[in-house]
Inverse folding.
């Protein structure tokens, strides 16, 4: 961004309160000009109705925008009744926003003119940039540089534009205008954006703002998210993303946003990422999907997997108050759909509310004998609107109920519209979360219209309504848990120099002794080991270590010891050590390494932990049980580093087989605090040194008393050190 | 059913071809009178438009039914222009079907009159039976007996009735008439039925027949399924069920049906079943959901979890040809939704088709340079109908493509209706499975109408379309696999007598020696064991067995040995055996049992297998790895017994941790054939003896050489023997 984005981040990373404050004000100030400009220039305005430059201008004029509008086109005199300027420089008054719709090749020139005119924000609608590759990418780099040079906040290129209900501005080439509502939507895909707009009209869905991100040359989801978090007109933030511009920044920004309001993200591209080359266990497991899911969870965002869920959740979150707890009451005129909704309740993290005695009394008194008064309440098939009213009044006034779902199927006596009216009015009366499932087609449609207009979302399928409520309860739970914020790491200068030096000399795979030293500095306990120069030394060391012992090959060029036959365990005699040494020494020589000897640790649970630098989210920690649990059952958990002790412990508790660690079938559990400590330190090591690509401790043996790493692999990548920005890190002299 | 239903099953179970043939003809003949009656009597016909008896009569007359119609009502003269009869007995001509809509209390009487009049089939619409409990249940038993006495095939009571497009008969009190189509739908819930009817009208969805099952006093899903399987007008069978009338019969009937056409079942009530009391490992794991899912899979049926999926799948299956393989091509004017569809492809068991070179050439020649010609094909946002035509023509003519999904979002240049027309015509031209995802609202609606009318289902969300296609491919795969049919077991008389005798004397938990003997007869290998009468004997036996040994308490009253501290393993010396014996002897005395000694089997994988009598599906086999895998990871598989060797092997291969058995990380695999054999025999044992409630072998130790049961528990239940019908079983003298 124009005004020195990374400088700001630098200050912000210091963690000093007033800087954060200033930064926020800056973001808000910057994007205010974009969303609420006092004046707009349309560069490339055209008389030709087929041209985007015409459509954009017409849209700006059409929906009540009250600022000044300047069409710019070197060839035209007047367009749509407005005087046309030959260039932005010709405009007399100040311009807050330029909307650019000229051919790609001309964009650099007009953008520079905008800069000279000191226009602070621009939307580049024109296509023909990075999305077409080669020359387009070069052109995009060029406009990015121009934006930076002139401090222009640039949205796009290759985007639809924006719509804003507050300033009544449709600065896009999309038909129609959004109706007012509480949801802001940003989309990295124009097509998803237009689909969403079309869907919203049919479903009476309202927006505060609509933003098409396009290629994200300058403004990305991060700035938008930060702006929307503070935006009073926005109640819920919806986003469609195909990739993260800066995952770690996203995490920080999103954590702040979700503390204030729900953020629902649809991230496409799950499968494509699965194709990544598999180079290591940690790498293979930490696919982009898993890391994205972990990061979104850490950020407190609600991740949806489909447009379906996005639309469903959006309708509930935008129209209803946030759910107070997780206790749902179901009131229905049909048993079957009620059972289906009940099935979905537990799966969605909700529970069926246990109705109080007084509620049950009310229901018993008012409903026919064949009705079911316990939740789910069955009003019986011949229920008219009055019976729905009685049932919903009873459950919504119950303190043990946080939300209600009313299910209606069109039967002989059913009063569809009257029931809808009753539900709308009760939803307002109690202020609790209410949704409906009027199931069917033409018969229920008039009822659904009344509901939607009245702010009660209807779900054609009851399970979908329950799931949306479950997502709401999940958001509330996550907010209460106050997941750990991404922390700032402060490394002391001495460590920075010593470990940095060790890593620098390490090569691609850091040598064994160096790795041992680094772990020692980070207080990560590791089993002792020694180099066995020859068979005699090996036997002598074995005697010192006590049998059984382990022999293994350590060689920088050997990434997978076990696969190469380079590990021998359980050697019980001098003879076995001698034979073993000879065998391994051959392998060691082949790879230019040496033979190590270690005492064999008996008992203990096998653990694997690792940390890997993700291209989007930076260092990501992995934890799992060793062997089959990780390799076959994929029972592993991820988190963006660094973690503190508490978050490490939470992470460990998330594996499915956690009972194996905490003690199952009468066995004592392992010392979890020691494991959490090790995980936490591992996460700090990788955060502190951007040149680290991967650290794997496999296995770590955990016992009731503590834990010990048995094998270590550290991989560095100096390309990375140059490319990767220093993330949440500061070196301090102490 | 009137004509001796179980007698027929008896013959059928003999497995004699012509009996099966006859049985089929009988079912068809019986239900033909119901669906295509030459004449209908409406018992309880009324002049009062508010009464069901009026609505039913009006519906029968309204939609072109060509048979004779006789209103019956003792009080009326003429109704809707027809002469009214005082009772069924008064009618002169033959009557094929009686539709009964009189108060519940009067139903027995009018049904008896129908019987005397020799009316072969009846639909009882009246409510007030089992669904209201107590007196209603007694009344239902009464009408069931009357139906049996007079050989009446009875549908209901408490149902909506039926609709049939072939005989143009609406013998129900539901408004309107189904439009003709290839889907038959049966529903155990009237509300789900009416919702489906209402939905179908709005979505232009056609039916062959619609059946409301009601309380299933006589005709159940099984007879309906059998009839629909043979029905030429039905292309796909849809069913909504809340419970199975006879699960084992359902399995057999459904297997036959799914060999002919797809059967899609929505079974509600997953959560409620989860509440069952947990009495054993096998019992706890084999919840009703898991057993139902296993049985439906074994039956070749497609199980859906929600109305949403039911409606989605129904639309695709009813309108499009069955998919030929699993290779899908995606053609879209938008990148984002295309990525989302791609994400769903692998998850749905499909794969992205690899387009042939000639297809790629065609696409390259016809599409703009910015288009993506590899699958998913991106036509770019400004694609008009001609570009969709070119793209779809290219992929559908490719032999490497089995199905196509066309995705459209409404953008500036998009031709919604023209594109829809093109797709409809191409879908007909190639005869491959085609679906669309026109995403949006008002703008895409006219296109969706054209598509639906033209037999191409549209999915608002592309993932939903992909999932429906995936279900279709799954059905085709399952059909090709030809899953094992439920087999007939023939037990020889000697075994029947011997094992029967042993079980009879066994009590609730069969004693250890008896259980050992039974396993021996069924050739299930078990580790040797002996009773240690005192510590001296124990030490002597230990010497004979060789150390280490195992001591355990065997007592009929002790169901969970380990939990009671009744198992000691790894005893290595005479001293340990002596101390151990003393400890266990106390426990043995407490439970009135004795102490057993076994040699300890070293090495081997721990397996758990069991079989349990499910109230709906009879004996159900469970297989899993022991310990954590079963208890914590729930990595277990179920099948309805009996299994043959091949099916047992397939079942074993379905556990997630199968690699642990087949050999992982350089280890040799266990002898799978031996495991499969044991599982197969276990399944036979439980099938042969209905008095067996549960058999658990836990653990079984499997090695590279074979497998051996180490512990056994057999539980009998004589209540069960009386209640449970003999399922797929015949005793033969040999």
């Amino acid at each position: 961004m124009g005004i020195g984005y990374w400088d700001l981040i630098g200050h912000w990373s210091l963690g000093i309160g007033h800087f954060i404050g200033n930064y926020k004000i800056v973001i808000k100030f910057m994007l205010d000009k974009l969303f609420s400009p006092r004046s707009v220039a349309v560069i490339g305005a055209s008389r030709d109705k087929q041209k985007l430059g015409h459509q954009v201008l017409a849209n700006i004029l059409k929906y009540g925008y009250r600022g000044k509008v300047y069409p710019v086109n070197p060839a035209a005199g007047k367009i749509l009744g407005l005087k046309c300027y030959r260039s932005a420089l010709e405009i007399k008054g100040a311009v807050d926003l330029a909307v650019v719709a000229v051919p790609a090749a001309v964009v650099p020139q007009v953008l520079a003119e905008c800069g000279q005119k000191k226009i602070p924000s621009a939307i580049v609608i024109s296509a023909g940039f990075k999305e077409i590759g080669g020359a387009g990418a070069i052109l995009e780099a060029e406009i990015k540089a121009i934006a930076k040079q002139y401090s222009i906040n640039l949205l796009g290129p290759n985007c639809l534009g924006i719509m804003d209900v507050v300033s009544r501005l449709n600065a896009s080439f999309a038909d129609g205008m959004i109706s007012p509502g509480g949801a802001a939507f940003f989309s990295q895909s124009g097509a998803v954006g237009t689909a969403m707009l079309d869907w919203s009209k049919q479903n009476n869905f309202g927006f505060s703002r609509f933003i098409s991100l396009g290629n994200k040359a300058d403004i990305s989801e991060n700035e938008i998210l930060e702006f929307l978090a503070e935006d009073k007109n926005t109640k819920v933030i919806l986003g469609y993303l195909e990739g993260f511009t800066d995952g770690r920044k996203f995490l920080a920004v999103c954590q702040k946003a979700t503390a204030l309001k729900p953020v629902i993200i649809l991230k496409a591209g799950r499968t494509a990422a699965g194709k990544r080359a598999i180079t290591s266990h940690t790498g293979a497991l930490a696919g982009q999907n898993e890391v994205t899911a972990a990061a979104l969870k850490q950020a407190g965002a609600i991740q949806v997997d489909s447009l379906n869920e996005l639309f469903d959740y959006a309708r509930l979150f935008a129209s209803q108050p946030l759910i107070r707890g997780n206790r749902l009451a179901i009131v229905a005129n049909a048993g079957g759909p009620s059972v289906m909704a009940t099935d979905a309740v537990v799966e969605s993290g909700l529970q069926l509310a246990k109705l109080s005695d007084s509620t049950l009394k009310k229901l018993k008194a008012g409903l026919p004998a064949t009705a079911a008064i316990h939740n789910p309440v069955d009003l019986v098939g011949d229920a008219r609107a009055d019976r729905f009213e009685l049932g919903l009044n009873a459950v919504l006034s119950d303190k043990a109920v946080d939300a209600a779902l009313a299910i209606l199927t069109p039967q002989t006596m059913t009063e569809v519209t009257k029931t809808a009216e009753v539900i709308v009015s009760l939803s307002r009366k109690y202020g609790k979360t209410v949704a409906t499932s009027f199931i069917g087609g033409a018969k229920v449609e008039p009822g659904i219209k009344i509901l939607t207009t009245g702010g009660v979302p209807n779900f054609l399928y009851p399970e979908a309504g329950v799931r949306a409520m479950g997502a709401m309860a999940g958001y509330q739970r996550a907010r209460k848990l106050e997941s750990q914020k991404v922390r700032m790491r402060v490394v002391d200068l001495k460590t920075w120099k010593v470990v940095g030096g060790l890593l620098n000399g390490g090569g691609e795979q850091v040598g064994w002794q160096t790795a041992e030293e680094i772990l020692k500095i980070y207080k990560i306990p590791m089993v002792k080991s020694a180099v066995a120069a020859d068979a005699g030394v090996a036997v002598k060391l074995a005697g010192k270590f006590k049998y059984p012992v382990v022999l293994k090959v350590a060689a920088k060029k050997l990434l997978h010891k076990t696969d190469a036959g380079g590990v021998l365990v359980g050697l019980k005699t001098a003879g076995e050590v001698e034979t073993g040494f000879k065998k391994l020494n051959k392998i060691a020589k082949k790879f230019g390494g040496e033979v190590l000897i270690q005492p064999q640790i008996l008992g203990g649970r096998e653990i694997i932990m690792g940390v890997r630098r993700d291209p989007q989210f930076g260092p990501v920690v992995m934890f799992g049980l060793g062997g089959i649990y990780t390799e076959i059952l994929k029972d592993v958990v991820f988190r963006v580093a660094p973690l503190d002790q508490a978050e490490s412990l939470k992470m460990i508790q998330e594996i499915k087989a956690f009972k194996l660690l905490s003690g199952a079938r009468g066995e004592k559990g392992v010392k979890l605090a020691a494991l959490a400590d090790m995980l936490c330190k591992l996460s700090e090591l990788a955060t502190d040194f951007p040149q680290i690509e991967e650290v794997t401790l496999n296995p770590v043996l955990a016992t009731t008393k503590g834990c010990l790493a048995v094998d270590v692999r550290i991989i560095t990548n100096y390309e990375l050190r140059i490319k990767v920005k220093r993330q949440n890190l500061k070196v301090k002299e102490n």
